[in-house]
């Protein structure tokens, strides 16, 4: 039996990355730090929006799910997911909310697009509950941050792009 080796990801200072549970951050530095007598190489990632800095041991990067910004194929698939028809399962809201949170925290743009698609409400449809709105806004924020870095545009433009995709497709 052969051991499958994951491709090693290399990150550079100044590069944008996605940490699954926190969203898009910027690699500010790669440093060596001594912790408990052991020298570790650390990737320092800043999340300006949350005013947070993460130090991730480079050996743990594959385990935490840190990844580069999505490629064209993945983003196009996420946009196509947004254009799709909402699939709302007939289970209790608490269980659905938990599934939505898990999809958002997976950091997968396609899964996040599914949450947005399923919770999107146009102006003329019934209001969302507070918890639906919170989850929806969290998902939009997560995807818009990645779209803004991917498209090299402002966060407002990324939000507008997502909203345009949703409102055009649902109006038909």
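Q: What amino acid sequence fits the structure above?
A:
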């Amino acid at each position: 039996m052969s051991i499958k080796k994951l491709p090693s990801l290399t990150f550079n200072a100044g590069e944008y990355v996605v940490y699954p549970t926190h969203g898009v951050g910027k690699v500010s530095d790669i440093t060596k730090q001594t912790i408990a007598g052991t020298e570790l190489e650390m990737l320092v990632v800043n999340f300006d929006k949350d005013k947070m800095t993460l130090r991730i041991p480079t050996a743990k990067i594959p385990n935490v799910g840190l990844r580069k910004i999505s490629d064209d194929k993945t983003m196009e698939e996420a946009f196509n997911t947004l254009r799709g028809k909402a699939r709302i399962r007939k289970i209790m809201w608490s269980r659905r909310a938990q599934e939505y949170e898990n999809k958002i925290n997976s950091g997968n743009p396609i899964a996040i697009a599914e949450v947005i698609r399923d919770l999107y409400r146009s102006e003329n449809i019934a209001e969302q509950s507070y918890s639906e709105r919170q989850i929806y806004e969290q998902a939009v924020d997560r995807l818009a941050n990645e779209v803004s870095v991917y498209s090299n545009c402002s966060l407002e433009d990324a939000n507008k792009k997502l909203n345009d995709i949703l409102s055009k497709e649902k109006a038909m």
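Q: And what stands out in the fold?
A: The domain at 72-171 is CATH 1.20.58.1290 (Methane Monooxygenase Hydroxylase; Chain G, domain 1).
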